[in-house]
Amino acid sequence: MNWGKVAAVALLGSTVAAGAGMWYAQEYLYYDPIDPNGPGAAIALATEGGARDLPLTGFEGIDADSSPLRWRACATVDQAALDGLMAGALPFDGATPLNAPRWFACFDAARIGGDLESGAARAVLSVSDIRPDVDRVLAVYPDGRVYGWHQYNDKTPERGVMD
Description:
By secondary structure, this protein is of the alpha+beta class. Helix content is 28%, strand content 30%. The protein has 3 helices and 8 strands; from the N terminus they run H-E-E-E-E-E-H-H-E-E-E. The chain has helices spanning 3-29, 79-86, 109-118, and strands at 32-33, 44-47, 50-53, 56-63, 72-77, 122-131, 134-140, 145-152. The strands form 2 sheets. A 6-stranded antiparallel sheet has the order 1-4-5-8-7-6. Strand 4 (56-63) and strand 5 form a beta hairpin. The protein is elongated and about 75 Å long.
């Protein structure tokens, strides 16, 4: 047997193992589901009169300690409650939904982004500076569907993205 072939196979095998490990870490390792009955399942809506909690049903959410941007949520709000709450909601300009792991099927960033651009959904602020330089943003549909994510804000551009 040729030692060059052994080295090539070892190098190829370690590359495949590292790639599989990176994929697993990005898709599964750091994400934890949010308990629908726990404190992490409450979503507020920023309004001109202050923050108001949304009465949610069907909540699904994920989060991770590894990044302030990994929070995602999907839920539904009762139509009657939504109409009253949206009147004073603060709009969020430049909303850009971030991709979620493929296994979190309720959150489709491309569809949500397209709906925000077309006007089928409205982007509103949920919580300003939920973490330093990060806002919680919601995409709200007229039928009561609500999708949320965290997004960097540019309120303090002189500081840069990270401290």
